[in-house]
Amino acid sequence: MSQSRAVDVPAYINAQRFSGYQWLVLILCFFVVAIDGFDTAAIGYIAPSLVQQWHIDRGSLGPVLSAALFGLAGGAIFAGPLADKLGRKTLLVLSVVFFGVASLATAFAQDLDTLTALRFLTGLGLGAAMPNAVTLISEYAPESRRAVIVNTMFCGFPLGASIGGFVASWLIPHFGWHSVLVLGGVLPLALSVLLILCLPESVKFLVVRQKPIEHVRRILSRISGESLSDVDEFTVNEAAPKRAGSAVSVVLSKPYGFGSVMLWLTYFMGLVIFYLLTSWMPILFKDAGFTIERAALITALFPLGGGIGTVLSGWLMDKFNAQKVVAVGYALTAVLVYAVGQAIGNIGLLVALIFLAGTAMNGAQSSMPSLAAMFYPTHGRATGVAWMLGIGRFGGIAGALLGAELMRRHLGFSATFSLLAIPAVIATVALLAKNAWERARGHLPTTSNDARNSAAMH
Hints:
Layout: E1 5-8, H1 9-15, H2 20-54, H3 62-86, H4 88-106, H5 112-138, H6 146-154, H7 156-175, H8 178-198, H9 203-208, H10 213-224, E2 231-239, H11 247-252, H12 257-287, H13 292-304, H14 306-319, H15 322-342, H16 347-375, H17 381-408, H18 413-441, E3 452-457
Parallel strand pairs: 1-2
Antiparallel strand pairs: 2-3
Helix pairs in contact: 2-5, 2-6, 2-7, 2-8, 3-4, 3-5, 3-17, 4-5, 4-8, 5-16, 5-17, 6-14, 6-16, 12-13, 12-16, 12-17, 12-18, 13-16, 14-15, 14-16, 15-16, 15-18, 16-17
């Protein structure tokens, strides 16, 4: 008779090579994030056609362009606690279907009010999908490679947005602006079928929520190739508040509350910079004397290095103190953004600085979901990641509004870029404060031997 044994799921995943099954999870989550990027950016690609065909003023597109941002924030904030209760896969599939249907409906909008309402609904689905994809892949990634794996998945967002621009430039002349939104609806609906058939639920979630042990055994067997038939107990040993309560209470609890606020502040400040620059940089360059074409090309350099910066940041996070690595990224952003404002007379230097600033900025900002996923325990991870993303979205809204105010005040190229160094400095300080707070407490919440929460499945 074989003797039964217990297996700690995080330790078991850490001990395995990154298997083909985990690659499948990564690829599917990458596709979710890529389509998320496509649909988020879609309204920008069709905006010129809307102005032309509907004979409307550009300024009247403001509510349409911001509606999805409000939806993204709301979707993330509400989806996190639901995912910690119902499951990451369940919420991910539902949100992908939701924003697919909403995008399809948006394609048939006949007026601005309808378009604005439907873009808000699309944003709700987009906002719910992103944090659950981050949470799911982070819970399948071995600890030694978690940051680089999550960051690699997150590269799908700018890639999807970028490819969307090329696709839209071909679709719109041939089939009209509606075709971009139709594609943005068909792709997620097709992907949702693959998610239902191929994507597993988070194995850590299954253990914490006391789901049937056969599900856990089957998933871990596909990762390792072992049968695990002799295992009659699976556990998830990790730090958690002594009285865990709801997922929201975990995020706001004493061991996590200060860190949560610092994550929110950092992500908020990062999106202030990102949305202000992506929304207003072409106008800044044009006002500085560049042609429209050159202004567009130089602006395109800002997100170009994002993939390099994101993967490099993830690799460094796995090797060194993750919070300090991301803090250095924001500090470099502050220096480089300020330098951009002083280099207006030197086109070669300006181009190089824009590329480097984008690499540092996007690398740091895209690393934040990975940092949040490391920080929270399984019981509150989806909520923690989602709330950071959701609250941070208001930074994007603030960045777009701040840009409009700076344009109204005619602040100028150099002064605007100098001003943008401030939120980057605030983000740096917030992460360093979080790191110092954890050191002062004598432990990191996700690795503490104190207040251990051992979730077991028999």
